[in-house]
Fold Cohesin domain-containing protein.
Amino acid sequence: MPAKKVIVALLIIVVAIGGFVAGLVLLREQQNLVEEAAVPTGQAKVSITPETGNLNVGDTVQTNVSFNPANIPVSGVAVRLLYPFSGATPEVSVQSIQINQSLLSSGDWTCPTQASNIEGSNVIVDIACANTSSAGFTANTDTLLATVTLKVDRAPSVSPLVLRFDPAKSVITRKSDNEDILLIPASTGSFTIAGSQTQVTLTPTPSVRLTTTPTPTTKVSGTPTPTRSTTPTPTTAQLPDAGVSYPTLFGLGLGILVIVGAVLLAL
C-alpha cells in the first residue's frame, strides 16, 4: 500500500478518535446539568406571612416573604409569587415591593429584580437577590427577603384570594456549587375579602303542621351561586432532562463508523 495512503488513513483515524472522545465529554457534561427550579429534596425553604386574613374593599395588606437557607451558605434567592384575578384588570393590585433594608445595608446583597406584571389570568410578583460575599449568606431561621403590599380595589369573584409561590420559578442557590437547594414551597397567603362570591349552602326550612286544616307548605327553591374552587392546584416543577440527547448519540455513532471505515481503508 502506498505510504501516502497509509498516512491519510492514520490522520482520519486520529480525527475520528478525537471526535469520539469529544462526544463522551459532552455526554458527561449533559448529566451534570444544574436544576433551575425548586426541588423535592431541597433543604432551604421560603414562606409567606401572614398566612390568613380578612379584608374589605379599600384595605391594604403587607405580606412578608421570608427564606430559610437551613444553615447552608447560599449565593442567591429568587422567588415568584402569583395570585389569580378575573375581568379586564386585577381586583387586587400590587402597591409596592420593599426589599429588607437590613440585607441591603449589609453591603453583601444586591436585588436587581423587584417587579410585578400580568401573565394570563394571574398577577405575577418576581423578586431576586444575589449575595456577593465570598462566604455566602448563612442562617438557620426565617430571614425577611421583602414585603409586598397588596390593595383590594374591588371585591374579587373568588374568595379567599390565595397568594402562592411558583415552584418552577423559585430557587435558592448553594454558594459552593450554585446548585438549587429550595424545597418545593408549600406556604401560601389566604385572604378572605368581604363582598366576594362565596359558596352558599341552603338549609331546608322544616314545614309547620297546624292542628286545624293543614296549610300547604310553600316550597322555597334556591340556586346556590357557583364559585370557582379556591384551592390552588399544586404545580410540579419541570426539572431539566439529564439524559442522553439524540444529537450526541448520532455523533458517537458517526465517529464509530468513521473509525471502522478508516481501518478498512488502511487494510
Remarks:
- The first helix runs from residue 3 to 30.
- Helices lie at 3-30, 101-105, 246-266.
- Confidence is low (pLDDT under 50) at residues 25-35, 199-250.
- The domain at 36-199 is CATH 2.60.40.680 (Immunoglobulin-like).
